[in-house]
Design goal:
single chain, alpha/beta, pyruvate-formate lyase- activating enzyme, nine-stranded mixed beta sheet, four-stranded mixed beta sheet, 16 helices, binds iron/sulfur cluster
Length: 453
Amino acid sequence: MNIKTDLEWLLPELIEEAKFFTNAEGLEILHRHKKSENFDDEIEINGKIYSYSSPADFADETEKKRYEKRYAKLALYKALSDYLSEKLPWGALTGIRPVKFAYCEGENWRAEMGEVLGVSDKKLDLVSRIINAQRGIYEIKDGNCDLFVGIPFCPSRCLYCSFVSSEIGKAKDVEGYVSALVKEIAAAKPLIKNLRSVYIGGGTPVSLSISQLSRVLDAIGEVNCEYTVEAGRPDAISDDALRLFKDYGVTRVCVNPQTFNDETLKIIGRKHTAKDIEEKFESVKKYGFDVNMDLIAGLPGESFEDFKRSVEKAAALSPENLTVHTLSLKKGSILKEKVERLPSGEIEKMIDFSVEKLTESGYEPYYTYRQKYMAGNLENTGYTKAGKACVYNVDVMEEIADNLACGANAVSKKLFIRENRIERYGAPKDIATYIEKIDRIIDEKNELFLKNG
Ligand code: SF4
């Protein structure tokens, strides 16, 4: 496939969008854009010309660019959809937060997403169910905030991982990292007004030693709201760690199997079996934690039947939350080097099955997001049992509360509600740089959070 456009800055996104179509390989595509009274976009595919005209109604340069992008992508979607007789589940909707898009569109969201952007009824129903499930949690209010604490270490590296996480056995200065993190948490606490949740994520937080974990939990201190630890890989969760979490008031633990297929676990670089996952799940439940489990659709070598068995197994264990991811082949993952394309039809069947099976098992979808490079242009969806939706996930996905994020590569967000904008602060990815610059990081983050909105 070869794409040319006169909006050069948009080329990578147009290529990405076209790649979601199964048969776009080998096409010669030209995009021409001009602004008269309207935005006129012309798409030429192997000599066949499609023309579209959309209202050029914008307040400033930023909005102009946003609409240029939206209409050019919409034109490409419509032209490819017609040329290849293929529709995509999310139509021409781009961006990672479909539910946030719906909230922003207001009462008209269904028409805007369905009729204008071509989102399928199936996905519109998903968005509608999520909006319902978020009732009682969804709230935009000054001072609402969540605290995130990042531990970028893992026992070993998973094949599909693109996250900046180091193997704990090879990491140089874990103690130094914990010290810098503890300092950052202590400096963040006075900035908290109305804390809605705490989330210790990774990496795999339980790859730290018990004494290192205690230092982190001590720094966080007493928590009187939802408190999650993404324990992650079952092979790293110990009884000592679970007891420690209980003592510090943790309420929710993530145990992430990804699959219950032993063969696949080996292929993706996990050093545990499906049986270990079940045993670990039982021990986590013994402590009375709510549990989240992650599954991935589209793992290498997995058939629909393999995935179906994993969903059935997870539903039978009946954790409070279940998250179904679609494999995303991101740059930086070992898998990206090995697999170029995954069959999207098969993955769509997997995702459809998970919706059906989990609904039947008493779960409701409560958040969803999309990523780049996702197989079949699908999504990741979190499911919950009634009354157990994770506040942190809703706040982060819909961007409705400040996020005070501590740790290397952590991105803090401060909402300026009246100005309808968000400012971000990203800490350095590199652990040595993070340790070295911790005082500056604290100062810069303080400055952001002390600004008046
Ligand atoms: S556990 Fe998560 S962060 Fe760690 S290597 Fe695997 S995918 Fe990456």
